[in-house]
Amino acid sequence: MNDLCAEIGYKSINHYGEQLCGDHIEIAEQDEDSTVIVLADGLGSGVKASILSTLTSKIISTMLAAGLSLEECVYTIAATLPICSVRGVAYSTFTIIRLKDNRYAELIQYDNPQIILIRDNKKENYRKDEINIGGKKIFISEIKLREDDLFVAMSDGCPHAGIGMAYNFGWAADDIAEFMETLAPVGYTAKTLSTILIDECNRLYDNKPGDDATACVIKIRKREPMNILFGPPANRNDCDRMMSLFFSKSGKHIICGGTTSSIAAKWLGKPLKASLAFEKSDVPPIAEIEGVDLVTEGVITVNKVLEYARDHLKSNEKYEHWSMSKDGASRMSRLLFEEATDINFFVGRAINPAHQNPDLPINFSIKMNLVEELSKSLREMGKRIKVSYF
Predict the structure, then answer these.
(1) Please, where are the H alpha helices in 110-238?
(2) DSSP codes of every residue in 301-345
(3) Domain count of the chain?
(4) Looking at residue 31, what is its pLDDT?
(5) Which end of the chain, N or C, is more open, meaning fewer C-beta atoms within 10 Å of its C-beta?
(6) Residues 6+ apart with CB under 8 A from 52
(7) Using an 8 Å Cβ cutoff, are 230 and 264 in contact?
């Protein structure tokens, strides 16, 4: 099995005064290790541009993932896109990154800014072969992947940032590459890198973007397994089996819940200690067990992690808080969002008597929903998720 994986993160800002973004990103999985990522930029901005880019990215990603040729995709787009009544053309530029078995990346670029490849913390020049499909000049490249490679795809709103303000002719591609070179060694996630890049574009636009701007960052990294134990098993006789399976897994181990951590401490033969690193927070304090990477409270902490996960997938505004804080939810968020690539959930179905108090807003179904929703959010981040119930 290939030990490399692709971490994908993206962020957009809308043209000032527009409710919809004229750029769209679509991700389609061909199989476990092969993915198609499409960034489309619709003509103009607003509703029309949003429709054009959404249709383009949906059609290309779906067709390529199904094994159809690039020529068929381009001709289908030409026949499908609505014609702009003002300009008389149906126009959407696109950038395609097709990852093959997490070993190769095929880059297909039409009229968008060229993809930047950062390798060994420096911009890498790569070969581009030109082809013509339906009168469109398209560049194709194939690159063998290496660990820590960074691919930065953009709509033209990024190099146009700062025109007439910070820069006379916008933010040049070489300057954007240099900006990303300084960030590459820090170890940020793909999502954080795309957020930093778009925030800088927004700053150069003086927070009034003259165009939609989107950045998609793909970071190639080695797989990092993570294991979460949440709740005791429904049958007490399953405790030893659950603990044995949980601790036999490679990677870091996180335990959520007071009863669960007590069972784990007993199984390990280690004391359960309250942590002295208490941070004033709306999240309960953590604990410590020798041999366990993180021990937290259960439902309240996991609910906070879910809140951070949803924000991370959208505006990523709470990044500064969870990336710096020391409470259980912030620590778990860093482990799950930034470190983990493969996450195994071990979920106990036991009903906590304390949660049966009608005055408490916690019940068994809420706990199960938390696991389901958090798993869904982590999958959207590109994590491989496996959930086992006991």
Answers:
(1) 173-183, 190-204
(2) HHHHHHHHHHHHHTT-TTHHHHHH--SHHHHHHIIIIII-SEEEE
(3) 2
(4) 82
(5) N
(6) 22, 40, 42, 43, 81, 82, 90, 91, 92
(7) no
Are 85 and 155 in the same domain?
Answer: yes
In the prediction, which pLDDT does 217 show? 97
Strands across the sheet with 225-230, in order? 273-274, 287-288, 294-296, 252-256, 225-230, 342-347, 384-389
253 and 185 within one domain: no
pLDDT of residue 162: 83
Which tens digit of pLDDT belongs to each residue from 79-120? 887 766 666 666 789 999 999 999 999 999 999 999 999 999
The Cα-based distances of 342 to 129, 132, 355, 386 in angstroms read 35, 40, 30, 8
Residues 215 and 231 reside in one and the same domain? no
Provide the residue range defining the domain that includes 74.
4-222
Name the domain boundary from 222, 238, 256.
Answer: 222
| Domain end call among 222, 249, 278 | 222
Q: What is the pLDDT of residues 211-229, one digit of tens each?
A: 999 999 999 999 999 999 9
Indicate if 285 and 171 belong to the same structural domain. no
Weakly modelled stretches of the chain, pLDDT under 50? 360
Distance of alpha carbon 31 from its chain centroid, rounded? 18
If asked whether residues 134 and 206 sit together in one domain, one would say yes
Q: What is the pLDDT of residue 367?
A: 83
